[in-house]
Amino acid sequence: MNTKVIAPSLLAADFANMQRDVEMVNQSDADWFHLDIMDGVFVPNISFGMPVVHAIAKHAKKTLDVHLMIIDPDRYIKTFAELGAHNLTVHYEACNHLHRTLQAIKAEGMKAGVALNPHTSINLLEDTIQDMDLVCVMSVNPGFGGQSFIENTYQKVNDLRNLIEKKNSKALIEIDGGVNASNAKKLIGAGADILVAGSFVFKSENPTNTIKNLKELIAQ
Ligand code: DX5
Ligand code: ZN
């Protein structure tokens, strides 16, 4: 992929005005919608579930990038495919049989992603990187929006880019957590393809302009 992707996270949207915020993203320069599903077990927070994803999918006109922060995600692969997810990302730490999970996601016609918590080494992907369409590097501990970006992420992205090249994988690198105008360009420089941005977009005065500025910042 040549074009770098901005994926606003609806976790930071105004849930009482979800349709308005979905339309804003539709009309904006953003490329994807990022949807955060939390179960209160894998992460200490509960976000939203299937009925909300269904409602969002009815209005969303761009790629639905679904990030599952749940234990035992295999249980819901089919459900999210039916809901219209294009990308389904599971956590490395939540899968006992990651290879099998990735195949199951692809068998449902979705792109398969793996997210890594800040403490999880990219070296653990050595044997599966070729089976992934996307690696989501968590640049905060998952569970909440609005946290500060962890600086070690740049090094991790660099190392991951090298691993992807070494293994001849086609996986894209996504960064999730604390992304803003101060770190976006450096992240792309380190090898990222996709930047998720929640608070920085939705808590800004003009989210449409914020997305436009981010896109311009990372244009190559
Ligand atoms: C965190 C979620 C993120 C979150 C990012 O657990 O996975 O997608 O919405 O929010 P910000 O951009 O506010 O850090
Ligand atoms: Zn996320």
Automatic annotation (TrEMBL):
GO biological process assignments: pentose catabolic process; pentose-phosphate shunt
Enzyme class: isomerase
Keywords, sorted A to Z: Carbohydrate metabolism, Cobalt, Isomerase, Manganese, Metal-binding, Zinc
Organism in which the protein naturally occurs: Flagellimonas maritima
Keyword match Phosphoprotein: no
Gene symbol of the encoding locus: rpe
Cross-referenced InterPro entries: Aldolase_TIM (IPR013785), Ribul_P_3_epim (IPR026019), Ribul_P_3_epim-like (IPR000056), RibuloseP-bd_barrel (IPR011060)
Protein name (database record): Ribulose-phosphate 3-epimerase
Coiled coil ranges: none
Cellular component, GO, one term: cytoplasm
Protein residues bound to a divalent metal cation: 34, 36, 67, 176
